[in-house]
Design a protein that fits this description.
By secondary structure, the chain is an alpha+beta fold. The chain is 38% helix and 35% strand. The chain contains five helices and six strands, in the order αββααβββαβα. The relative contact order is 0.22.
């Protein structure tokens, strides 16, 4: 019987190790979609105070754009999708806040990601969605990640027990 997947990291790890393609440095997979519930604490070992600080810094970074988005989400009843683009970890990230009645969800497009960074990204975008939802008077729902490419290095694969190190002698 297969082990039940209960969190986004387990899902992504399982998908990457089973479907990923190998190269010199590790394995990678392109065009990956992962869903995370916004209100679920997955128990990832991430500093929540650092995540809160990162979200606050992001909102200050392009303050005019974020203020415009926050006000639009709160006031505009006709629009459903509210996009914004920003730089995170030297990568352009596109985020779409999607309003459905009294709920709001987030769809995030990240060009490249190393698997070890994923837990921080899940926690960061959960907090970002909760922040926007609180301001807009909405209930936060889910965060959908669209990852252009996700990778894992060979050392990480061996540590997780997903691969074995083989010594080839000549």
């Amino acid at each position: 019987m297969a082990q039940k997947i209960t969190d986004p990291l387990s899902f992504l790890t399982n998908l990457l190790t089973n479907k990923g393609k190998s190269d010199l440095y590790g394995i990678y997979l392109t065009g990956v979609n992962v869903l995370a519930d916004c209100e679920t604490d997955y128990g990832y070992e991430v500093s929540h105070s650092k995540v809160e600080t990162d979200v606050e810094n992001l909102l200050r970074q392009d303050e005019d754009d974020w203020n415009r988005l926050l006000v639009q989400v709160r006031r505009d009843r006709d629009q459903i999708v509210f996009p914004i683009v920003f730089i995170r970890n030297l990568e352009p990230v596109t985020a779409y806040f999607i309003v459905e009645g009294n709920e709001i969800s987030l769809s995030v497009s990240i060009p490249t990601l190393v698997l070890t960074e994923f837990v921080t990204e899940v926690t960061f975008f959960q907090h970002l969605l909760r922040t926007v939802a609180l301001f807009a008077g909405k209930n936060s729902s889910t965060v959908r990640f669209t990852l252009g490419a996700v990778s894992m290095q060979w050392d990480e694969l061996v540590e997780r027990g997903c691969a074995r190190e083989v010594d080839i002698g000549f």
